[in-house]
Specification:
Blueprint (H helix, E strand, L loop, with lengths): L1 H5 L5 H12 L6 E5 L6 H13 L17 H8 L5 E4 L3 E2 L4 E2 L5 H12 L8 E5 L7 H12 L5 E7 L7 H4 L3 E4 L5 H10 L4 H11 L12 H13 L8 H11 L5 H16 L5 H24 L3 H24 L2
Parallel strand pairs: 1-6, 1-7, 2-5, 5-6
Antiparallel strand pairs: 3-4
Bound molecules: zinc ion.
Zinc ion binds next to α4.
């Protein structure tokens, strides 16, 4: 079972708390898991659902992690358990992107799902992976289910920021904070995802405690391109613009924008510690700040990613050169 445990390593204390409450028959009917993106909130929620539904935990305490071998565990692995429902934003076929919100129709569906008695047992679970994306109507509808929970029902909500969930919903849930992971835990999870060698160490640094952030590196093409990008931007003030331009035109549409920005910002950390001219430092910070905002700007204003990224990289090279020159003059 070590591969299963590895998937939420780092939140063992929270999972133990869940199992303890389940053993004592004191399980809260609604959990709100909150913390930064990519740390495994939904993964932990899924493990909680598996443990709750597993046949081995149905009768005699103490409760354990899901056995992985019973009929229920097989159905969960196949994504076909009739008493388990996951809710996230729907795909908008017309706009070819995820809808902006989890909408009220989805909340009503999940409430009627929870109100029916389970087909395998008395237990039913709903996992709302993007609870922070519920619009006001959806959250309002959810209140009813929280006030009058159906027997045997378990609702698990996951969100980054508790403030994105209305206080009326929040106050009826058991709030459970999840923290970013340490590098060793992060490495072990990324290793479980199949990363090794140079890519693994690169991913650990990039993840910075949030392994989900580095999960695109499990695609070997993405990993190769990002390692290339890391080499090209390592000595940014002397970076070859032709090479940068070539890389950008080949890869910018396939590589998650936030990741390629993180690679560049990580490279700047050392320079930022240097004690240079204040004005030049200020300019460099402003340029880095604009670059950090670029992924959101591209999405929001539908900018051309290649030309705008290249412009940011040129500004960065100029600002870095100016700053480094002030170091040399000391
Ligand atoms: Zn089982």
């Amino acid at each position: 079972m070590s591969n299963v445990l590895g998937r939420f390593l780092g939140h063992r204390d929270v999972f133990a708390r869940f199992l303890n409450a389940l053993s004592k028959g004191q399980l809260h009917h609604a959990w709100l898991l909150h913390g930064p993106s990519g740390i495994g909130k939904a993964t932990l929620g899924f493990e909680m659902a598996r443990a709750y539904l597993c046949e081995k935990n149905r009768h005699s305490p103490p409760a354990h992690e899901a056995c992985g071998t019973c009929h229920v565990c097989h159905m969960m692995a196949a994504g076909s358990h009739p008493d388990f429902l996951q809710v996230e934003r729907e795909w908008d076929e017309k706009k070819k992107r995820l809808k902006r919100d989890v909408h009220v129709g989805q909340t009503r569906d999940l409430l009627s799902f929870l109100s029916l008695s389970g087909s395998q047992s008395e237990r039913k679970v709903v996992l709302v992976r993007e609870a922070g994306q519920m619009n006001a109507q959806a959250a309002n509808a959810l209140l009813k289910g929280l006030e009058e929970p159906a027997p045997g029902s378990l609702l698990i909500l996951a969100c980054e920021d508790t403030m994105s969930v209305p206080v009326t919903v929040r106050s009826r849930c058991l709030l459970q904070a999840l923290a970013p992971l340490g590098d060793d835990e992060c490495r072990s999870i990324l290793c479980d995802m199949g990363l090794d060698g140079e890519v693994l160490e690169f991913a650990v640094k990039l993840a910075d405690g949030q392994p989900g952030k580095a999960s695109p590196l499990t695609d070997a093409d993405v990993a190769d391109a990002l390692l290339d990008w890391e080499r090209l931007t390592r000595d940014m003030s002397r970076a070859d613009i032709g090479h940068l331009q070539g890389w950008i035109s080949r890869h910018v549409r396939q590589i998650p924008h936030a990741l390629l920005v993180d690679v560049v910002l990580n490279q700047l950390e050392g320079v930022m510690q240097e004690n240079g001219n204040f004005h030049a430092f200020d300019t460099l910070m402003a340029v880095a700040h604009d670059l950090a905002a670029w992924p959101v700007e591209v999405a929001r204003r539908t900018l051309n990613p290649a030309s705008t990224l290249l412009a940011h990289m040129l500004s960065l090279r100029i600002a870095l050169r100016a700053f480094e020159n002030t170091l040399g003059s000391r």
